[in-house]
């Protein structure tokens, strides 16, 4: 290891130690009750809420997957996806956050998303929460795997360390501070990591613009690539049939004729924004915020963070193509462009701090996924069905065991180091968005929704994602659209049709809905009311 690598490594080690210290610091408070362990006792402020939500949401995809996509195919794919995510972020905070915070209290003081669905629809047998918990386990295992892929690629690219060894070691660090510290450690570390991700993107983006000779110089270079900087075309790299890597000639990458972007493709990419309505790692932040009235402040913070971060990530990919035109031959390889540029542009220790942003992104996301998976199984299956009188201590132990299982499955999924982070994340995003997104909106806005419609919506959404991705998408044409969009629509239709075809919700459920809709309702009074009932 060279001297410069030692400084990079030292900065990253110090970061790891700091994150583990946070976990230990919050362990006593988080382990005082299940409510504290899973939702921070509903006492999280607006800044922590906003940045922890966005850091956990974006993961290593923001610093590796999105720049890699922009590097490989240009503006259109990455740009329309980012536009959908930015709009989805704002709308989620605008139309879901405050209502969910209030309704989760009104409907039995729910502290997890599966728990909210069961209590919202009066599901005393916990069928809804069990289905939701299973869906969370399946897709979060995939999500966690994508985060571990990021960690392995990071150390492999930086130091040439063995991918599999570093992937497992990084995963162990995340597992330890998650299982020890619970939700509060996750939220606080996510806040720190959100700040670091923002700093890393801004520094590398600025440095790349300067080193590449300025925007005008880069624009002139990129405009020579067919369709690369077009909003309605995407560049088509010319690939070697034998290796699948992009061909080059005279130090310049080769591209074929650009692919047209029609309206269906644009809508398909922007449909990424629909996923936010069903993302448990974001929705649980709405449940835990200290006061529903603070959500407006969180919405502003989160939206600004997302817009600037997405813009910087895409710019890094585009300017990276100008600086390193032939270094990355595949999209999976191009996902290391942020790391390579950091090494080129920054002093060693600062590089270590900046690339820790990648590990930060992976840590923040995977920790959130694991704690939510643990809470789903422990609260909604173990205490909800198997042992209704379970103590908080028993529930938290079941959660820790679940977290370990998800950790193991995530490592198995991440074993393939050639996996594209973007593709892995897109699949899990579609699954969660289609399963929970339509139901979340209907639960908050349509009084007539019943538990049968809710069950149908979740199952149909999840199944459609699998069927569309595996059977229909390979057919191409209109079936080539992102599976989230058709699955979201089909799930919404299933909720409406089944709810109308079955009996109306009971008066007790509709009364709670009407109560929650009253803006004069005091959340503190609702909590006290449910405490008395309990």
UniProtKB/TrEMBL annotation:
It catalyses: L-proline(in) + Na(+)(in) = L-proline(out) + Na(+)(out). GO terms for molecular function: proline:sodium symporter activity; sodium ion binding. GO terms for biological process: proline transport. One of its GO terms (cellular component) is plasma membrane. InterPro entries: Na/Glc_symporter_sf (IPR038377), Na/Pro_symporter (IPR011851), Na/solute_symporter (IPR001734), Na/solute_symporter_CS (IPR018212), Sodium:Solute_Symporter (IPR050277). Belongs to the sodium:solute symporter (SSF) (TC 2.A.21) family. This is Sodium/proline symporter. It comes from Bifidobacterium vansinderenii.
């Amino acid at each position: 290891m060279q001297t410069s690598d030692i400084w990079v490594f030292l900065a990253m080690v110090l970061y790891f130690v700091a994150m583990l210290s946070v976990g230990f610091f919050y362990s006593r408070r988080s382990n005082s009750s299940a409510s504290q362990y899973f939702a921070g006792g509903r006492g999280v402020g607006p800044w922590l809420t906003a940045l922890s939500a966005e850091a956990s949401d974006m993961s290593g995809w923001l610093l590796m997957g999105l720049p890699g996509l922009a590097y490989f195919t240009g503006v259109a794919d990455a740009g329309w996806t980012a536009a959908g995510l930015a709009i989805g972020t704002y709308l989620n905070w605008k139309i879901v956050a405050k209502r969910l915070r209030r309704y989760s209290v009104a409907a039995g003081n729910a502290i997890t998303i599966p728990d909210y669905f069961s209590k919202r629809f009066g599901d005393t047998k916990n069928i809804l929460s069990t289905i939701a918990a299973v869906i969370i386990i399946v897709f979060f295992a995939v999500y966690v795997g994508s985060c571990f892929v990021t960690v392995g690629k990071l150390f492999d690219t930086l130091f040439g360390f063995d991918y599999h060894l570093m992937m497992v070691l990084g995963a162990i660090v995340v597992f330890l501070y998650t299982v020890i510290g619970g939700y509060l450690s996750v939220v606080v570390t996510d806040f720190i990591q959100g700040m670091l991700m923002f700093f890393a993107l801004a520094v590398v983006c600025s440095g790349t613009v300067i080193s590449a000779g300025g925007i005008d110089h880069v624009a002139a270079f990129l405009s020579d690539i067919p369709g690369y900087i077009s909003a309605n075309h995407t560049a088509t790299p010319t690939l070697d049939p034998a290796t699948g890597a992009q061909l080059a000639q005279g130090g310049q990458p080769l591209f074929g004729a650009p692919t047209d972007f029609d309206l269906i493709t644009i809508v398909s990419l922007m449909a990424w924004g629909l996923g936010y309505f069903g993302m448990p790692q974001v929705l649980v932040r709405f449940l835990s915020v200290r006061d529903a009235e603070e959500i407006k402040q969180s919405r502003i913070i989160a939206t600004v963070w997302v817009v600037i971060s997405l813009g910087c990530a895409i710019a890094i990919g585009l300017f990276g193509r100008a600086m390193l035109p032939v270094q990355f031959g595949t999209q999976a390889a191009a996902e290391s462009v942020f790391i390579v540029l950091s090494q080129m542009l920054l002093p060693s220790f600062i590089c270590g701090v900046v690339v820790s942003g990648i590990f930060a992104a992976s840590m923040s996301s995977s920790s959130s996924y694991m704690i939510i998976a643990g809470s789903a199984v422990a609260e909604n299956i173990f205490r909800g069905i198997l042992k209704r009188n379970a103590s908080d201590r028993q529930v938290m132990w079941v959660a820790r065991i679940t977290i370990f299982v998800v950790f193991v499955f995530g490592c198995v999924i991440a074993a393939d180091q050639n996996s594209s982070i973007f593709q892995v994340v897109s699949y899990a995003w579609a699954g969660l968005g289609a399963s929970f997104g339509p139901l979340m909106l209907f639960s908050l806005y349509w009084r007539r929704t019943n538990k049968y419609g809710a069950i149908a919506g979740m199952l149909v959404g999840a199944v459609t994602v699998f069927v569309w991705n595996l059977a229909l998408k390979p057919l191409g044409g209109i079936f080539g659209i992102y599976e989230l969009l058709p699955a979201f629509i089909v799930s919404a239709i299933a909720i409406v049709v089944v709810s109308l075809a079955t009996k109306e919700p009971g008066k007790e459920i509709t009364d709670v809905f009407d109560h929650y809709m009253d803006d004069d309702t005091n959340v503190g009074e609702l909590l006290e009311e449910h405490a008395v009932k309990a």
